[in-house]
Specification:
The protein is of the alpha/beta class and 456 residues long. The chain contains twelve helices and 19 strands.
Amino acid sequence: MKTSLKFHYSSEGAADPYIEAGYAFQSSLERRVADLSVTERSEFLYQDRLAAALRLSRTNPMYAKLYSGKNPNEWDSLPIIDKIIVSKMFEDLVVSQGINRPIVEGYLAERFDLSNCLHDRYLAFESSGSSGHRSISVYNLFDFGRSLAAFYGMCMQPYVRNPARVAYVGLLDRYNGGNQWMYHLRGHANVALFDLFDDLEHLLHEISRFCPSVILTRPHLLRELGLSGKAQGRLTFKGAHLISVGEGLTPPDAQSISSCFETLPHNSFSTTETGPIGFQLDPDVESLTCYPALNYVEIVDESGVPITRFHEYGRIVVSNTYNTVMPLLRYDLGDQACWLPTDDGRPTMSFLMGRNSTVLKFKVDGSVFEVCERELAGFAVPGLANYQLHQTRPDALNIGYSVSFGGDPTHVGLVLEAEIRKLLKDNGALSISTEHKREIGPDKKTGKMRRIIPLS
């Protein structure tokens, strides 16, 4: 049986002083920003990103090339970058830090040890590659501490007593953002890390022994833990503060999880490259509030023009000016969302509506049409627990699905097929099959649930 990584408690080692310095700096900054009006806060962030663009255009080789002939003070005219651009220009981006790709890749290839730092002053990790492009990210310890303070202050501190007992279930065989953030949180909470691919019963037993006040993991695993624990009468951590990370949280997920834990999960949105981006403050409201003094978030249209109107979907673009090693200005995440109105005026997004880069391409009767992930996200089927769309031929689609407790698999399958055909505007020409499954498992490489699997 595969066993979990050894527990990491705050008492097992002192927190890194550079991380703690960054943590203290961010906490102080957020207290100052909290005293500003909405207008003053917006101006503060605006001036911060303009100053970063001007500085980097003069000192960073990547931005000197990208901004050549452009005025850094004209923010909306600056180019939007993505994973492919950053990968191609990685050496230019980090050269001033005395590191390069071979050095970082060498660190990532070493024996996995979360206490290990690159050159004693950097943390490096890689994304899961779920978007189709793997990326690597580097933070110095101070900047990493800033992101840690923002995350803990927004996602945990208001909801639980200190010190929190935090159980994180994620990928524990490689360096990635999730396990690094949770491991280094041990200076502020009692933290235990568990393996996402551990045997479910063993995982339930170990988490129950730890008795957490906070649990962070993928929503599909929260649901499985809840259902298994409830069935066995072993759900000793009922009522814990639940944070969904790593995948999108759907309404069926939230309701299924709530029925077991007697509390709704909160959705959290972050990326390896940018750190924390948004958090669902109220689990009854499907919205993500942006962090007040960490990243700058934009939603832009297909031409790259910022969208300021509510309920108009566009691409999420983030600027992580706090990361001095790998500053990413106007970085396209590939995800889509829209702005939502709020009473307090804080920048707040909808839940993500899928990637515009994940596309199904169909060819039927000589006609070719494409459908992106977002277009397939707008349906709700009573009794549906989970689903996965797998294109098997140019004219064929298989729908794998699972049902919630008490759901009728046959009825759910028929309604689900009808909804998908409606979204595809299909009149019966496509070959669509449905397959009821006990559960839809995560991808073995990324640990994430793949809703859409294009034709390979």
